[in-house]
Design a protein that fits this description.
2 domains, 11 helices, 53% helix, six-stranded parallel sheet, 284 residues, 11% strand, alpha/beta, Rossmann fold
């Protein structure tokens, strides 16, 4: 009786459980599974807003984030920029967190080069600036002056084709703000939306900010929200570009499944062993 499957399961080395879990989770991260993912109204609204804008629209991408937000913020930045470029939109990137614009530059460059986007013509990165309120306020009158006529690499903005038809904030067709906290969406709303300069805002918060930023969406101050890694995966599904967010959600799904499977097997093993012990005692 000591060699039943239930006895073997009860004595299973924990390292085997960890190994199985690691393999199961790593597989979708590497190869992807494409598990079905329900699309929320908030993400669909963001997609429809961007898709419905005409070619030549100009997007301001506010990357107010840090290195610790890589997992949640990189996938939507890449997906949104690719989608915007394919629709014929121009992209202007900046941010008021020290790391934000630099990280966006590192993440965007390979993706934009892959699809043939030309820096200075199709997109530009203005780099980090310290004083958010004064920069955004001055941008209402002159973007080039607000950013000292320099991009993240020190190149002159006034010599770039993208700025031939872009002088001030009101010429941005829409704003996408990617943020895990403050400064973030609320600051852009105060600086540009309340003044009537930019009325279309897509909010891309991290998971921890979804509840807080959801109030902006409910109040009509933003027109869509791509929240957390789950929202990014939904957006990738809508644009037909399954990438890192999709693979991460697949990994989470199978990871949860394998944990539940181990819990179920463990409880069944416990119940069966208890029954066998009771029978043994009763027979003696």
């Amino acid at each position: 009786m000591e060699n039943t499957i239930w006895h073997r399961l009860s004595k299973l080395d924990h390292r085997i459980i960890y190994l199985v879990y690691t393999i199961v989770v790593a597989f979708p991260l590497i190869f992807g599974l494409g598990l079905p993912l329900p699309i929320t109204d908030d993400v669909r609204a963001a997609y429809e807003v961007i898709k419905g804008l005409p070619p030549g629209s100009i997007m301001y991408l506010g990357c107010d984030l840090g290195a610790t937000n890589l997992a949640e913020c990189k996938p939507p930045i890449v997906a949104i920029c690719k989608f915007a470029y394919e629709l014929g939109h121009k992209i202007v990137v900046s941010g008021f967190w020290v790391d934000g614009p630099s990280l966006a530059y590192i993440w965007m460059e390979p993706a934009m080069n892959e699809i043939g986007a030309v820096y200075g013509e199709d997109y530009v990165n203005l780099g980090y600036r310290a004083s958010m309120s004064s920069i955004l306020d001055q941008s209402r009158y002159s973007i080039i002056e607000a950013f000292s006529d320099r991009d993240i690499n020190g190149n002159r903005l006034s010599e770039m084709p993208i700025f031939q038809n872009l002088a001030k904030a009101s010429e941005f067709t829409y704003l996408v703000t990617i943020n895990p906290g403050y400064p973030g969406t609320a600051d852009y709303i105060r600086a540009w939306r309340s003044t009537g300069d930019v009325s279309l805002i897509i909010d891309v918060p991290t998971a921890g900010m979804i509840t807080t930023n959801g109030t902006h969406l409910q109040a009509g101050l933003t027109q869509g929200m791509i929240g957390g890694l789950n929202g990014a995966a939904q957006f990738e599904a809508l644009i037909g570009y399954p990438a890192k967010a999709t693979a991460s959600m697949d990994a989470q799904g199978v990871g949860i499944f394998i944990i539940i499977a181990f819990l179920v097997l463990g409880n069944i093993s416990f119940i069966q062993l208890r029954k066998q012990n009771e029978l043994t005692k009763g027979g003696s």
